[in-house]
């Protein structure tokens, strides 16, 4: 029996990057998939690659920043797959880094929007999906966070704050749902490949990594898939670094 045979997963931000890599690891294990992204071309391309693995894939175009869309997305995905067992809560991000001195001169709505993108989107998906998981007595959730939540991020305070709030959410909710057979964890990612990162910034991050390189997308996808599997049945409420050692400083240099 395949690792995820008989399971159905909802994956946000699945059109590229970590979301697409996670979906691929789930598909290789026989998992049915409900994919979300805001970009139709990316979403369809990702779905085609996943269907080649022989699993059922549905696509749901829209923004998880919008609560009405989340309700519709979850309802449609549940109807099409019969249930949703797993949630890869990946969508998030933000604009290019902005120094606080400049940020503080802008409307506070700018800060709020980035915070909401990285916290409320994931909280709303938990709100929508956990009741069904509790009712069925099974569910696994992984929220995607960042080392910025632990270390802070110069010129990225709104992003880092939203990600740190996720850790409190995961820790709190996991305590309430464990007795219903539901695991809730976070992965704290560091140095994934990113198309907008400048060469200087990438070189800096590579030097900080214990492995002197950028993380590979499949490495992040495999870590998330592990936490969504029954192999991680006794792990819950954790925020697990997958960062090449970035959180652990190299003090001898």
TrEMBL record:
Family indicated by similarity: Belongs to the short-chain dehydrogenases/reductases (SDR) family.
Protein name: Uncharacterized protein
InterPro entries the UniProt entry points to: NAD(P)-bd_dom_sf (IPR036291), Sc_DH/Rdtase_CS (IPR020904), SDR (IPR050259), SDR_fam (IPR002347)
GO biological process, one term: monocarboxylic acid metabolic process
Pfam family of the protein (one): adh_short_C2
Organism: Croceicoccus naphthovorans
CDD domains listed in its UniProt record: SDR_c (cd05233)
């Amino acid at each position: 029996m395949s690792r995820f045979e008989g399971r159905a997963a909802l994956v946000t931000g699945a059109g590229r990057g970590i979301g697409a890599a996670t979906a691929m690891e789930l598909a290789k294990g026989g998992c049915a998939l409900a994919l979300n992204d805001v970009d139709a071309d990316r979403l369809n391309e990702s779905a085609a690659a996943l269907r080649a693995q022989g699993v059922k894939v549905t696509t749901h175009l829209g923004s998880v920043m919008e609560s009405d869309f989340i309700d519709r997305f979850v309802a449609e995905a549940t109807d099409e797959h019969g249930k949703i067992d797993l949630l890869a809560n990946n969508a998030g991000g933000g604009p290019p880094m902005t120094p606080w001195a400049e940020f503080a001169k802008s409307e506070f709505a700018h800060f709020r929007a980035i915070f909401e993108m990285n916290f409320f989107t994931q909280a709303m998906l938990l709100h929508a999906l956990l009741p069904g998981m509790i009712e069925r007595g099974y569910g696994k959730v992984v929220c995607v966070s960042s080392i910025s939540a632990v270390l802070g991020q110069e010129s990225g305070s709104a992003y880092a704050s939203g990600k740190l709030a996720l850790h409190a959410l995961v820790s709190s909710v996991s305590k309430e749902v464990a007795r219903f057979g539901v695991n809730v964890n976070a992965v704290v990612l560091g140095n994934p490949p990113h198309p907008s990162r400048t060469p200087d910034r990438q070189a800096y991050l590579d030097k900080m990594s214990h492995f002197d390189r950028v993380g590979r997308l499949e490495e992040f996808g495999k870590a998330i898939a592990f936490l969504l599997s029954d192999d991680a049945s006794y792990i819950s409420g954790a925020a697990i670094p997958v960062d090449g050692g970035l959180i652990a400083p190299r003090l001898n240099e």
